# Entry
Amino acid sequence: MSAPLEEYFLYNGNVRMTYQDDRHRYTAAVKQEDGKFGRDLWVPSATNIGNVYDGGKAHNLAKWRARLISEELYRLLEEKAFQFDEVDFAELWEKAMVEPDAYTKRSTSIGDKVHGHAEDFLNSKINGTPFKPKKYKNKEINNCISGIEQWWEEEGHKWEWIASERKCYSVKHHFAGTLDAMGIDPDGRVGIIDFKTGKSVYDSHRFQIASYALMVEEEDNLNVDRRLILHLKKSKARNGKQYTPYDLDLDARFTGATKEEDIKAFLGLRQVFYRTRELQDR
# Structure
C-alpha cells in the first residue's frame, strides 16, 4: 500500500506541493493569474540532483563487491579444495550483488527513524508540547539519537527553532527538498541543519545543504548565514562523542568554499541532471 499523498502550500499559498514519502516523489503547481493552480509537475529532489556528483561512492561500492567476492572465493577454496560448482559461483555472485544493497536499505531504515526522532523532538520545542520519544532496541539508532542529545546539550538548546522537516521548493530552478531543521543560532545567525547517519559526509552533502539555503532564501527573502551538517555515529564512539559537526560557514576547516560557490556547484549538477535526462529520453 502506497504512502498517502501529502500536500503543502508554499510562497504564501502561491505554490502547491505534493510529496509521497515511500517514493520520495515531489510535484509542484504554481498559481496562475486567474487564481487557479497550473498543472502539477514532477520535481526532482535536491538529493536526486546531488547524486549526479558521485564523489567516489560508486568506486567504494565496487571495491566492497570485489572484497566480498575475494573473501567468498577464499572460503570456497579452503572448504572445498577447488571442488566448487556452478551453484557455488551463483551464490558467490548473489552475495556480492545483494549484500551491499541490503546494507544500503538497512542504513536508510536507520536514517529514517533517527530523522523521525529529531523531527518529533524539535517540533515539541517549536510548539511547546511534551516530547514522548519512541523506544528503540537497535543500538545503531540509539547511538545516533545520543549524538542528537549530546549536540542539544552543547549548543542546540541555545537555538531559537523555526522549522523541522520543512518542505522547500525553488520556483526559479524547479527542484525541491526537505530541510531537516532551521533556526536562529545563539549569535543571531539564520542556520539550517542536515542530519547525516551514513558512513561519511561527502562533498555532495555540502552541495545538497547549499541547495536548501538557496530554496529558503528564495522563498523567505532572507540570508542563510550558517550551514551545519551533523554526522551522527551509528557505532559507539571511543571518545564518547556520538556526533561530528561540519560547520561549513564558520569552521576554518570547511570555509575554503563559500555558500555562493557551493550553490553555483549545485546548479551545475542540476544542469548535468537535466541534460542526462534529455539524452536518456531520446
Notes: The beta strands are 5-10, 15-20, 25-30, 41-43, 160-170, 175-184, 190-196, 226-232, 243-247. The two ends are 33 Å apart (CA to CA). The CA atoms of residues 114 and 279 lie 37 Å apart.
